[in-house]
Here is the input.
Amino acid sequence: MRGFRAIARVGLVLSVALATIACGGTKKKVGQLCQNDSTCPSGSLCVAGECVTLQACQSTSECEAGVCSEGYCWTEACSADRPCADSLQCLDGYCVRRAETQDASDTSSEDQSVTPDQGQEKQCDLDADCADKVGQLGQCEEAWCNAGQCQKRNKTSGASCDDGNKCTSGDQCDDAGSCQPGSNICECEKDGDCTQLTDACNTGVCNPTTNKCVKQPANEGKSCDDGTFCMVGEVCVNGTCGGNPEHKLRTDCGLNGATDQCNTARCDTVSDKCVVDPINEGNPCDDGNVCTVSDSCKSGVCAGDPLFGSSCGSGVGEHCDFYGQCVSWVETRLAPPTYSTNVACLAATDCPDGGNGYSCENGMCVCTNGAGCVC
Here is the structure.
């Protein structure tokens, strides 16, 4: 009998030793016994003396089911009729772990207060006591003291939060514990927000540092139109249309210098139109009329003095009349012939000899043959 008792005593000591090793200071596999989180693999928690793996979270909104507590999703439902295990507590209808208690091997604070109804170590008197006892908090979660135990809960709807987007301001928590974005304070967040700056030589892009729309040169060397009539040959050069040597003033404004002796044409960059400028003022020209002489340029018009009586044309009796026109004798007008002197006037008195024999017609002195003026 004594031998049997000795063997039993040795077996008991061996069992205690094995249990001590199993829960001691080495990492345990999930499902193995443990004393605290530090003895479990990374990503696992020590729950009721056993290592378990749960889904990580920052807020309840990230959990497919259950609530987020201590940075993990807890999915076992609880109620008044369905209480949680002794090591857990009911939070928002789900069983979650109570905040970690002191190691059983640590007897330095044996006089700590214990809630009489739960047999658990009292963790707090104020919400502030729970700041570092409930694990990681989401943007819309806060720690609070509930009957001496530290727990997580959603912040009040409308509480300030940060949705992580620098382009929103005034983010707020909603009733479900999610952080909702506030008003947009950025001009852009992506290139597609900047299409208003895209043109023939640029593409609108969003600067990720400033969140401002800027132009980025595009289509380098490609043909473009700067929108002006007078300039031709434009191409894109570093975001500018027309910044190239071929970008020149157009020269095809339509006047023939060989036939128009008294004018020149140019493209005016101010009005962006073709304009005509008189030239060769007072210089000889040829108006192509055989019945005028002394042709010269006058304000852009080539004109001469009538050559009365001279033969013109090949018809019988064709001659130059007083108006500088080639007519036959039959067509000669019966009225006293007149001709312009090319002397400007406002009244007859402005004409030679004080207007003797002259009249002022259409701003020019006109001599009537036989009226005393010199024809």
Observations:
- Residues 2-22 form the longest helix (21 residues).
- Residues 191-248 form one domain.
